[in-house]
Amino acid sequence: MTIYNLGSINADLVYRVPHLPAPGETISTTEISKGLGGKGANMSVAAARAAARVVHIGAVGPDGAWAVDRLMEYGVDTRRIATLPEMTGHAVIAVDDAGENTILLHGGANTALREADLAEALEPSREGDFFLFQNETTCQREAAEIASRQGLRVAYAAAPFDAAAVQAVMPLLDLLVLNSVEGAQLEEATGLAPEALPVRDVVVTLGADGCRWIETDSGTSRHFPAIPVVPVDTTGAGDTFTGYLLAGLDRGLPMAQALVLAQRAAALMVTRHGTADVIPDLKEVQDLRF
Ligand code: ADP
Questions:
Q1: Carbohydrate kinase PfkB domain spans which residues (predicted)?
Q2: For atom 24 of ligand 1, which residue has the closest CA?
Q3: What pLDDT is stored for residue 121 in this prediction?
């Protein structure tokens, strides 16, 4: 089957600085690195590295050919990525010697996507394929409606969290993935605990505590402990988790097995610095000993 992922594509520009700049201050950077990022791209790479067939739906600007090439090198089908006049989305990240950071995020082409750009993006999907999305692009609801009508299984990773955005798509969802902070924010906004949400499967990730799977039909909740590792950088853990989870489900694994696979991949990810470019592949995940 296929995973159609509507999601952001960013350049992560990481600048090393002796200290974070104060208002009005100019400082020189000591190092720069440019990597592929964006929750959407990260999840597409993770699912592709987990051996799933992934079609990425999204947009870059005229400066984004390198990002599309890199997604392709990781095995993602990039033919539904539009090139728009706006700049490619990017994050300008300053990291100081103490590891503190500040981040400027510019949505760029990710937030310039229009419904017309999506017109054929979900063709020729088939019943049972997955449609995955996050909250970093425009056209989320429109695309989820098309996907739902076409019989795709609709999965939403509700990040960055916005209560109104989740509520707008909730009736269309088969699977909702949230971290514990997002789960609490959603409960505060709706008054509904994860158990009471109108979504069949809800997965709440709990960082070093693992994750919880709630089957709302039966009201059962199962905890899955995390794989014990020594974390060095938790960036991209959630995105790797979700990409692997979807790939596992798409391959026909029962939810419990797909969650174990996702947690193995995410655990390996937190032992590495970086985002999309260091997401582990399936062999590394299967070979992980702990
Ligand atoms: P997010 O990155 O979206 O905030 P979490 O921090 O909850 O998400 O992490 C997602 C998943 O990554 C967790 O469910 C867990 O499987 C794995 N993970 C995160 N931190 C650790 C850790 N310190 N040790 C092992 N696994 C981790």
A1: 6-280
A2: 208
A3: 85
Nearest residue by C-alpha to atom 17 in ligand 1: 266
Pairing status of strand 81-83 against strand 130-133: unpaired
Backbone angles phi, psi at 51, to 5 degrees: 75, 20
Q: How far is the CA of 24 from the centre of ligand 1 (A)?
A: 36
Nearest residue (by CA) to ligand 1, atom 18, is 207
Which pLDDT band, with edges at 50, 70 and 90, does 274 fall under? confident
Quick check: CB of 288 below 6 Å from ligand 1? no
Our mutation pick for probing the ligand 1 site, out of 235, 270, 272, 288, counting the most ligand atoms within 8 A of Cβ, is 270
117 Cα: distance to centroid of ligand 1 (angstroms) = 34
Domain limits of the chain? 2-9+37-88+108-287
Percent of the chain with pLDDT over 90: 91
ipTM at complex level? 0.99
Contacts of 66 by beta carbon, 8 Å cutoff, 6+ apart: none
pLDDT tier, 146 (very low <50, low <70, confident <90, very high otherwise): very high
175-179/31-37 β-pairing: unpaired
Q: What is the pLDDT of residues 168-207, one digit of tens each?
A: 999 999 999 999 999 999 999 999 999 999 999 999 999 9
Q: Above 80 in pLDDT, residue 220?
A: yes
Question: What dotted CATH number matches 2-9+37-88+108-287?
Answer: 3.40.1190.20
Q: Determine the Cα–Cα distance for residues 113 and 103; give it in Å rounded to an integer.
A: 23
Q: Please report the beta strands in the chain, taking only residues with DSSP state E, as ranges in sequence order.
A: 2-6, 10-16, 31-37, 53-60, 81-83, 89-95, 101-106, 130-133, 153-157, 175-179, 201-205, 211-215, 220-224
